[in-house]
């Protein structure tokens, strides 16, 4: 990733290629998460995805999971998708799915019930 940190606009006039490590290296992925994903806007979903109060969706990026909820007709709130006591996810994303979606009146940790 260090080789890409000094790329200028002029350098982008030609196609940019990434080294194999960009797709296989854990260190590269960690550096990308630290230097890129935490500093740019993320698209978790659309307002149409949660039209009714209580509708929710999850959004996972890197090691973080977020819970986006329609809290009122005119209010959408986002939280870390985690119990603050044990760190357990409040809503699990099914394996292979991009996000979980549903409708709930409240979220309760499975450990604490």
The secondary-structure element order is HHEEEE
Strand content: 15-25%
What gap, in angstroms, lies between the N and C termini?
43 Å
Helix segment count? 2
CATH T-level fold name of the largest domain = Rieske Iron-sulfur Protein
Structural class: alpha+beta
The outline comes out as elongated
Notes on the protein architecture:
- The protein has 113 residues and is an alpha+beta fold.
- The chain has 2 domains: 2-39, no CATH class; 47-103, Rieske Iron-sulfur Protein (3-layer Sandwich), CATH 2.102.10.
- Helix content is 12%, strand content 22%.
- It contains 2 helices and 4 strands.
- It has helices at residues 21-24, 26-35; strands at residues 55-61, 64-72, 75-80, 101-103.
- It has a 4-stranded antiparallel β-sheet with strand order 3-2-1-4, with no helix packed on it.
- A hairpin with a 2-residue loop joins strand 2 (64-72) and strand 3 (75-80).
Keywords:
single chain; 113 residues; alpha+beta; Rieske Iron-sulfur Protein; 12% helix; elongated
Topology overview:
Blueprint: H1 21-24, H2 26-35, E1 55-61, E2 64-72, E3 75-80, E4 101-103
């Amino acid at each position: 990733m260090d080789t890409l940190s000094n790329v200028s606009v002029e350098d982008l006039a030609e196609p940019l290629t990434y080294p194999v490590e960009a797709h296989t290296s854990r260190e590269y992925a960690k550096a990308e998460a630290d230097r890129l994903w935490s500093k740019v806007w993320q698209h978790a979903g659309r307002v149409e995805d949660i039209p009714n109060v209580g509708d929710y969706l999850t959004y996972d990026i890197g090691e973080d999971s977020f819970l986006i909820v329609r809290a009122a007709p005119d209010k959408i709130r986002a939280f870390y998708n985690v119990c603050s006591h044990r760190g357990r996810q409040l809503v699990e994303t099914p394996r292979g799915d991009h996000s979980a979606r549903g409708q709930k009146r409240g979220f309760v940790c499975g450990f604490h019930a």
